């Protein structure tokens, strides 16, 4: 089973793709979708376009998306919510089953501690996937962690 993990953001969206095969996890790829337009609506359009390219490249069977958690900055929270909406709609239009996870659920699954530091999550993601080179940026690490979490929480 191939799982796409997505870490939504207002200007950078992390993605990670893993294959779960015979209780083994294999990293297929990771990266980010960068939104650098001055027009937020153009960013939303570009997000859909880039996400479709990723889906066509890796052909995932399902997707995991991080749930929006409380943000101090209301403007940022709104932008991330709008981006998340585009992501969810794009995944649904591609007929991918979607599971959503809070940051704490992802940290708990990957590191066995729901309040793990970013460095702990990074080390565990690299360990679980057998990746030697550094995974950058943090958004991609988070997306791979979401994909790992989704691959272990299969709901029919």
From TrEMBL:
Catalytic reaction equation(s):
Endonucleolytic cleavage at a junction such as a reciprocal single-stranded crossover between two homologous DNA duplexes (Holliday junction)
Which residues does the entry assign to the active site, renumbered to this chain?
Answer: 7, 66, 139
Query: What does the record give as EC number?
Result: 3.1.21.10
Tell me which cofactor or cofactors this protein depends on. Mg(2+)
List the GO molecular function terms.
crossover junction DNA endonuclease activity; DNA binding; magnesium ion binding
- Annotated Mg(2+) 1 binding sites: 7, 139
> How cofactor binds (record note)?
Binds 2 Mg(2+) ion per subunit.
Q: Name the InterPro entries on file.
A: RNaseH-like_sf, RNaseH_sf, X-over_junc_endoDNase_RuvC
- Name the top EC class: hydrolase
In terms of domain of life, where is this protein from? Answer: Bacteria
Cellular component per GO? cytoplasm; Holliday junction resolvase complex
UniProt KW keywords: Cytoplasm, DNA damage, DNA recombination, DNA repair, DNA-binding, Endonuclease, Hydrolase, Magnesium, Metal-binding, Nuclease
Q: Which Gene3D superfamilies match?
A: Ribonuclease H-like superfamily/Ribonuclease H (3.30.420.10)
Role played: The RuvA-RuvB-RuvC complex processes Holliday junction (HJ) DNA during genetic recombination and DNA repair. Endonuclease that resolves HJ intermediates. Cleaves cruciform DNA by making single-stranded nicks across the HJ at symmetrical positions within the homologous arms, yielding a 5'-phosphate and a 3'-hydroxyl group; requires a central core of homology in the junction. The consensus cleavage sequence is 5'-(A/T)TT(C/G)-3'. Cleavage occurs on the 3'-side of the TT dinucleotide at the point of strand exchange.
Tell me which family the UniProt entry assigns to this protein.
Belongs to the RuvC family.
NCBIfam families attached here? PRK00039.2-1, ruvC
Q: What is the recorded name of this protein?
A: Crossover junction endodeoxyribonuclease RuvC
What species was this sequence derived from? Candidatus Yanofskybacteria bacterium RIFCSPLOWO2_01_FULL_49_17
Q: What is the lineage of its organism?
A: Bacteria, Candidatus Yanofskyibacteriota
Quick one: which gene encodes this? ruvC
